[in-house]
Amino acid sequence: MATNGDLRPVLARPPLPEYLRELWTRRDFMRLVPSNHLRAANLNTALGNLWFLLNPILQIAIYFLLFGLLIDADRGIDNYLAYLTIGVLSFNLVSQSFLGASRCIPVNLTLIRSLYFPRATIPITALLSSVFAFGPALLVMVACTLLTGASPTLRLLLLPVVLTMFLLILLGFVMAIARIGSYFGDLHSLLPHLVRMLFYGSGILFDPTSFTSHPIVLLVFRVNPFYEILELMRWCIMARPVHPGIWLGAAIWAVLSSIIGFVFFWRAEISYGSS
Q: How far is CA 3 from CA 7, 8, 262, in A?
C-alpha cells in the first residue's frame, strides 16, 4: 500500500537515475500499448493485418515504377529494386516516428495533468508503435533481396546490431521532437516538409556518389545518421560494400543521439502539462 512518502506531485522531475528506474518499471505498459494498437489498426478491414505486408509491397511497386523504370535513377546500382526497398521502407520508420513524436505530448495532456509517471513513457511508447509496425516491412526487405537473386550471407547476423543503432538514433531524435512539439504546436505541420528534405538527403532513391563527386555534397550525406544506417542495412541484407568509417559514425550517432535526446527531454519534465 502506498504511503504519504510514496506520493509524488503530478509535476515533478526526480533525479535521472531514479527516473530511469521508474521508467523501467513501466516497460510492460510501453510494450503492451503499441502491441494493442497494432492489433486494432486494421480491425475493420477485409484483409485485416495482411495490410502490414501489402502496404510496403504496393509502396515499393510505385517507387520502382517511377524511379527504376521511368526516371532510371539506378545509375549502375546492382539490384536497384532491393536498394530502393531497403531505403524506402527503412525511412518509413523515421518518418512515422518523427510525426508520432511531434504530437504525443499535446494529445496526452489530460493524462499528464492527472497523475504522475515518467513523461518519457509517452514518446517511447509512440516510437515503439512505429517499430512494431516496421516488422513486416523488414521481412519484405529481406524477401525482396532474396527474390531478386541475392544470396544470404553471414552479414545478416549483424543486422540486429545495425537495428539497435538505428533505434538508439531514433530514440534521441524522438525525445527531442517530443519536447519541442510540446510547446511549438506548428511543428507537426512543419515536420513533413523537413522529413521530405531528409528523405532526399539520405540516399534512398539513388547513390549520391553516382551523381556527384563534390566533396562538400558527399560530406552532407555522410554526416546524415540515417544515410549511414541505410548503407549499413544494405551492407547486411544485400552485401553492398560500405566504407569502414560508416560503422564508427553510426555508433557515435547512436550513443550521442540517445543520451543527448533523452536528457534534453528529461530536463523539461516539469513543464509538460504545466500550461
A: 7, 11, 30
